[in-house]
Automatic annotation (TrEMBL):
Record organism: Pygocentrus nattereri (Red-bellied piranha)
Keywords: Signal transduction inhibitor
Name of the gene: RGS13
Example GO biological process: negative regulation of signal transduction
Signal peptide: none
PANTHER family from the UniProt entry: REGULATOR OF G PROTEIN SIGNALING, REGULATOR OF G-PROTEIN SIGNALING 13
Pfam families: RGS
Name of this chain's protein: RGS domain-containing protein
Keyword Protein biosynthesis: no
């Protein structure tokens, strides 16, 4: 066994022991930063609580609504080298807020080049039909230009990344740390 990860699972995901250690170290490093950031927060309502963190397990939507939940989830995805989905989803959320048609056209092209186009730097996993539809939509972009791809990506995160996050050492360590803090006082 490699910590909590069995050897066959490590091989299945093409992870070696060094990858596992890096992932754990990233999680521990992130936990230290989170704890420092949360404990320095002056206002009690802006601190992360055990209850808030436990609510992240209710739904992906609940997790993404929390600024600390989103930050933790993004860090988890980066540790797995699979952060393109959350980056795309967040970029689409920002895109929907654009009012200027000039800015919308420019941003739509950037999103297409970065996330949608085949072989793009952060290519998302969507079907050919959706990719081609977006390619056409980008020529005359609207607020809904990326909606279908965003739904697909959200579904992938909800079915795949989110359950792994809830089982991750990163999330478990955060819960344990907050539970220990709560019991102390």
């Amino acid at each position: 066994m490699t910590g909590l990860i069995s050897e066959p699972l490590v091989k299945h995901f093409n992870m070696d022991k060094d990858d596992c250690k890096r992932s754990k170290n990233l999680g521990k490093s992130f936990m230290c930063r989170l704890q420092c950031m949360f404990s320095r927060s002056s206002a009690p309502e802006s601190r992360l609580s055990l209850e808030d963190t436990q609510q992240w397990s209710q739904s992906l939507e609940r997790l993404l609504e929390s600024k600390y939940g989103l930050a933790t989830f993004r860090t988890f995805l980066k540790s797995e080298f699979s952060d393109e989905n959350i980056e795309f989803w967040l970029t689409c959320e920002d895109y929907k807020k654009i009012k200027s048609s000039f800015r919308m056209t420019s941003k739509a092209k950037k999103i297409y080049e970065q996330f949608v186009k085949a072989e793009s730097p952060k290519e998302i996993n969507i079907d050919y039909h959706t990719r081609e539809q977006i390619k056409r939509n980008v020529k005359s972009p609207t607020v809904q230009c990326f909606d279908e791809a965003q739904k697909i990506v959200y579904g992938l995160m909800e079915r795949d990344s989110y359950p792994r996050f809830l089982r991750s050492e990163m999330y478990r360590t955060l819960l344990d740390s907050l539970a220990a803090d709560a019991s102390r006082g």
